[in-house]
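Re: [ENG-882] Designed sequences occasionally contain unexpected residues at chain ends

Forwarding the minimal case from QA. Structure tokens:
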């Protein structure tokens, strides 16, 4: 009797999880380097139907759940800023920064860089480039040049280099927040990016989330949520009728 209600409840939970993910994509539609979440639905466990079933081989499903397929890898649109500390990674790959929380090296494509009070180049959220790049004291950001291979120069002299890397399975990277990613066994270790990966200065890669597509998906998800909630109401009425008949 309650199988249908459980399946509908699982469906509501799955649609809510998808809606939360889509809402996050909308909130980050203007976040540099943001990659949207890729999701799909999969069946939950099937079970044998009750002994009173006409077909003894009939199986009943228990609903669906959201399967996380990792982050998208499509390159976002480039926006010209003419800020010498803004960079965009062109092609597949990432550049490496240090997570201040644990000191581990993480990957990102968010190229809105800055110079901190100690002259070190960091991201807008405070992660230092890894390896560290420090400009000479008193250097203005307008004097910093970043060339295609990631070399950082001041007055024509190289002071460091942005480390461009890639992994075998980028969709399996661990999202760490703030557009940062961590490597794992499924993604494979970070390795030097190929020649098709370069850096463009004075440009930012914007979010690759498409607002129109995301809003359409949100409407579909909301309607699916409403349908599954009505299924629970229907199951409740059926249960009420069954109880009434028994009495």
């Amino acid at each position: 009797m309650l199988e249908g209600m459980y399946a509908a409840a699982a469906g509501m939970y799955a649609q809510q999880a998808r809606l939360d993910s889509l809402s996050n994509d909308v909130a980050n539609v203007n976040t540099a380097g943001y990659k949207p979440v890729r999701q799909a639905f999969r069946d939950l466990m099937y079970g044998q139907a009750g002994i009173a079933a006409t077909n003894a081989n009939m199986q009943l499903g228990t609903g669906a759940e959201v399967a996380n397929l990792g982050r998208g890898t499509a390159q976002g649109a480039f926006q010209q800023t003419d800020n010498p500390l803004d960079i965009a990674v062109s092609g597949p790959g990432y550049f490496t920064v240090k997570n201040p929380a644990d000191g581990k090296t993480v990957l990102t494509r968010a190229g809105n860089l800055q110079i901190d009070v100690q002259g070190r180049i960091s991201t807008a959220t405070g992660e230092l480039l890894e390896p560290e790049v420090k400009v000479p004291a008193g250097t203005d950001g307008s004097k910093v040049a970043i060339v295609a291979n990631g070399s950082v120069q001041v007055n024509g002299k190289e002071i460091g280099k942005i480390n461009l890397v890639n992994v075998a399975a980028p969709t399996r990277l661990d999202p760490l927040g703030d557009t940062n990613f961590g490597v794992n066994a499924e993604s494979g270790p970070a390795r030097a990016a190929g020649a098709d990966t370069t850096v463009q200065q004075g440009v930012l890669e914007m979010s690759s989330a498409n607002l129109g597509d995301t809003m359409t998906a949100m409407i579909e998800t909301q309607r699916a949520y409403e349908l599954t909630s009505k299924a629970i109401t229907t199951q409740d009425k059926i249960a009420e009728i069954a109880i009434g008949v028994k009495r």
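QA comment: On inspection the terminal residues look reasonable. The two ends are 16 Å apart (CA to CA). Proposing we downgrade this to a documentation issue.
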